[in-house]
Specification:
Elements lengths: L4 E6 L6 E6 L23 E5 L3 H13 L3 E5 L2 H11 L3 E4 L8 H10 L7 E6 L4 H10 L3 E4 L4 H8 L10
Parallel strand pairs: 3-4, 3-5, 5-6, 6-7
Antiparallel strand pairs: 1-2
Helix pairs in contact: 2-3
């Protein structure tokens, strides 16, 4: 209906596929703000994604992979501790409401591990009340982001530009 094109490219079985969708920009589209940190300027990081909502975790991992980061994805608190120890991420995107061990306890235990102090821990959760943010800070999180996470804010975090207002 709006015009545009869809392309699909593949090299054969087992090699993956590339899908390209191009849509025309609406005459009524809001102006995009200039971003001082283009995606290409991001520091490439090792990122651990922990979320019991598998669709959310896989989607976030896909975005991070597209941005050029190395990723590891797990779906519960116990697996998060093991992945933090073996994968040794620079940054952990950690849901709070997890099975087996909640995100607050995972954060505390990661901080207690040998190199856990150097990891950037980011709560990535649907819980966004002031008390939730206070509890995440007390558990050792560096930042509290509320789902759905704004891609511009995530890019700023990954680029190392964390502002106090980013988590609100």
């Amino acid at each position: 209906m709006p015009g545009g094109t869809v392309e699909a490219h593949g090299e054969g079985p087992g090699t993956g596929n590339l899908f390209v969708v191009r849509l025309p920009l609406s005459d009524h589209a809001p102006a995009l703000a200039e971003d001082p940190e283009p995606v290409a300027a991001l520091i490439k990081r090792r990122v651990l994604v922990v979320d019991d909502n598998k669709d959310s975790a896989v989607s976030m991992t896909m975005v991070l992979d597209l941005l050029g980061h190395e990723t590891c994805t797990v779906y519960d608190g116990i697996a998060a501790l093991e992945a933090a120890r073996t994968f040794r991420p620079d940054l952990v995107l950690l849901d709070i409401g997890l099975p087996r061990l909640n995100g607050y306890d995972v954060a505390r235990r990661i901080r207690a591990q040998g190199d856990g102090e150097s990891m950037l821990l980011i709560a990535m959760t649907g819980w966004g009340q002031a008390e939730d943010k206070r509890r995440s800070a007390a558990a050792g999180f560096d930042l509290h982001l509320v789902k759905p996470v704004d891609l511009v804010v995530l890019e700023r975090v990954l680029a190392g530009h964390i502002d106090e207002g980013d988590g609100d």
